Amino acid sequence: MLFLSLLLVGLSLVGYVSFSMLPAPTAAVAVPAPQAPMDSVLVAARPISTGMLLRAEDLRWEPWPPGRLGDGYMVRGRVAESAYSGAVTRRSFAAGEPIMAGHIVAPGERGFLAAVLSPGSRAVSVAVDAVSATGGLIWPGDRVDLILTQNFESQAGRDLRSRAVGETVLQNLRVIAIDQQLGEAGMAKNGPDGRIPRTVTLEVTARQSETVTVAAAMGKLSLALRSLLSDETVLTTSNVEAASAPTWAEDVSPALRQLPAPHSAEAPAARRPALLIIRGSKTETLER
C-alpha cells in the first residue's frame, strides 16, 4: 500500500509538471471580411468655370465607395474617353467634385457650340490657311489677335510707301473650334491626307462679329497667337484690348522711307461746257 501510494503521488507530480510546461492556448484572431473593390470616379482636379473646355490637367480619377455612387457619375472603365475629352461644362465645378455626365457636352453632341460660347457672345468663322493660322500651332481655347492686311497696288498713282498696310482689328479673341473638330490646327492632326485647316471659329461680341465680316471683305485675315496667362477669361467688352495703330509699308521697309516724295500731278484743266448745234445733216460744236 505504501508503494502504491508513493507511485500514485509520483505520477501526479509528473503530470502536474508536464501540464504546466504546455504552451498557453492562443486567443482566436478575428479575420476581417473582404472589402468590396472601390470604383474610380472622374472629378475636377481644380475649380472649373461654366463654358470651359476640359483638358487633361483639369480632371483626375479618384477612388469612390461603391455605395456612394450617384446617378450620372462617370466611373472609370464604364465610360469612353470621348465622353469627357474636349468636352465643355454646362456649370461650374469645385475642386474634387464629381463630373456629372448631364452637366458636360461632348464634342459632336447637339448644342456643343452654343455651350462653349460665353453669355452674350457670338461665334464667327474666319477662312485661313496653314500660314495665316500660325503654322498650325493654334488649339481651341487659345487666344489670338486678328490682323487685316490690305494691298493697294491696283490703284494707279498710289505712293509705294502706302500701297500695303497691316492692322490689328481685334485682340484677345478666344478660339473655340478648328474646322469642325477640337484639335490642333495643323496638318499633322488632320489625318493621313495632310489637309490644312480652312476655318477657325472665334468667340466675339455682336459688334465684333460685324467687324470680322467687313474685314474679311477688305483684305487678307491672319491670326497671331497670344500667351495664355490665365486659364479662362470671360469675354467682355472691357477686357478686349483696343486695336493698335496700322503699320504701313514704309514702317516695315526703311528703303521705302528713303524714296523721294512723289510729285503731285497737276490737276487737269476743267473742260468748258460745249454747245452742240445740228443743222440738217451737219453738226457743229460751239465752245462756251
Strand share of the residues? 25-35%
Continuous helix count: 5
Overall helicity = 10-25%
Mean pLDDT across every amino acid position = 75
Total E-strand runs? 12
Intertermini distance:
180 Å
Q: How many domain regions? A: 2
Low-confidence segments, ≥5 residues, pLDDT <50? 182-193, 231-242
| Overall body shape | rod-shaped
Helix/strand order, N-terminal first: HEEEEHEEEEHEEHHEE
> Rg to the nearest angstrom?
41 Å
Major β-sheet annotation: 6 strands, antiparallel
Q: From the helix content, strand content and strand pairing, which structural class follows?
A: alpha+beta
What secondary-structure arrangement, pairings included, does this model have?
Blueprint: H1 2-20, E1 39-44, E2 59-64, E3 88-89, E4 104-105, H2 112-116, E5 122-127, E6 143-151, E7 164-178, E8 199-204, H3 206-218, E9 220-225, E10 247-248, H4 249-252, H5 254-257, E11 274-279, E12 282-287
Antiparallel strand pairs: 1-2, 3-4, 5-8, 6-7, 6-9, 7-8, 7-10, 11-12
Description:
The chain is α+β, with helices and mostly antiparallel strands. It has two domains: 39-114, Type Iii Antifreeze Protein Isoform Hplc 12 (Alpha-Beta Complex); 120-255, no CATH class. It has five helices and twelve strands. The protein has helices at 2-20, 112-116, 206-218, 249-252, 254-257; strands at 39-44, 59-64, 88-89, 104-105, 122-127, 143-151, 164-178, 199-204, 220-225, 247-248, 274-279, 282-287. The strands form four sheets. Strands 5, 6, 7, 8, 9 and 10 form a six-stranded antiparallel sheet that branches. A two-stranded antiparallel ribbon has the order 1-2. It is rod-shaped, with a radius of gyration of 41 Å. The chain starts with a helix and ends with a strand. Residues 182-193 and 231-242 have low confidence and may be disordered.
